[in-house]
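Help!! Second protein's tokens look totally different from the first
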Amino acid sequence: RNQRIKLDKAPMSTNKLLRKLAKHSLWLGIGFVTGMTFVGYFSPIRELCIEFFTGQADGWAYFWVGFFTLATYGNAGWLREQVCIYMCPYARFQSVMFDKDTLIVSYDPRRGEVRGPRKKDVDYKAKGLGDCIDCTMCVQVCPTGIDIRDGLQVECIGCAACIDACD
């Protein structure tokens, strides 16, 4: 995610153009395979593939393959984490399925606060500082872009990438 953000902010270059072109071509290819597979559930897939590429398929087959190709490309290739945050119900379902035994990914303010940079030769515990150095790596690796230090949020999918990044 970090590298993608840096690439997006960089000025246009041949490298950037080739990477973007390859990425979007790959997503369109994945979308096309998804569309063909989905339509293949309702129509014999072998005949569909032959008819599709020879121009003999039904108009509805072209429509639905195109529809699912563009839907997959739009959701996974273009919108990415916005789909997770705003459209995907997984995190919302997860938040209502809690019970007393549910493992919850959370920030421990008793351990992490007070945040701030550290020097190697200074005992930060004696200065009253917590373990969090405020590097924001937890936010940068989060697929939904939340700051776990702000408390439990409905967008959290419990992947624990923030825990792995904080070392």
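Here's the second one for comparison:
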Amino acid sequence: MSANALNQITTSDAAVASSFFISPRRDRNWTSTAVAASYLFNPFTILTCLGRPTSVFATYFITLATAKACHGAVISSALALALATYTSLHPGLLLPAMIALCHDQLLQKSPKNGASMGAFATKFVIAFATFSAALTGLSYFLLQDWSFLSSVYGTRLLLPDLTPNVGLWWYFFIEMFDSFRSFFLGVFWIHMASYSPVLIMRLKKQPLAAVILMCGIFAIFQPYANIGDAGAFMAMLGIYGHVFDMTRYTFTAFSAILYTTLLGPAFYYLWIYAGSGNANFFYAITLMFSMQSSEMSGR
């Protein structure tokens, strides 16, 4: 389903044309089939299928919200984004970028009749808030208890589980003194959230690029990072395949990703099972993985 959503995003041509920008390299754009295949046959996607995590639902709803926004479907996009936020919380940071993308596509289709950004943003936020409230209310109706809020959202906000993963948070908070924990939780969340307005301001002529780069930020900086989000982000980069030949150090970046992908499980085994390593072994590899993901986003 995520591959189908990526297919729809590619066929919308939102990556090569907006109301304020038309790429001179649009004839070099990847086909929708190639983008979908880059997701389906990505090793990270295959490993995610084997692990069967719930993060695949958030990935699907994010790509679906983006696909609907690329076609100017306000209600459908708001609903899909609300569902993504309902399952994982952090997709809510995509709200500004999704508003900009949907408004841009509507403005491109009807320049004279398009609503102002303020009025459109209000409409989108109201729809998003309504769907989010309805989903939360439905959960309470089914469970007759508000404990799901702390179980689902409190887990991400407060990071009680420090099980090692491919992210950056767990090691930092293992070493953190408890008296500083609340402060740095706020710092880490504010850091991730700060990218949203900055990307919108910098890429206001290409809002789809802002959405995709925010997905890359999630893959690197979310509390419980996973390879499923990294695989989805790499597939999304194919939507901008027409600029690949302008990027630098591509071979170095992908070689480093391959290097860390192979050494990550090995160092984890040495630390957890063989007892011949320590946490620094595994964290150094995850740090390298995140650094190269950042490098790909920047390039």
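Reply: Different proteins will give different token patterns, so don't panic. Residues 56 and 173 are 26 Å apart (CA to CA).
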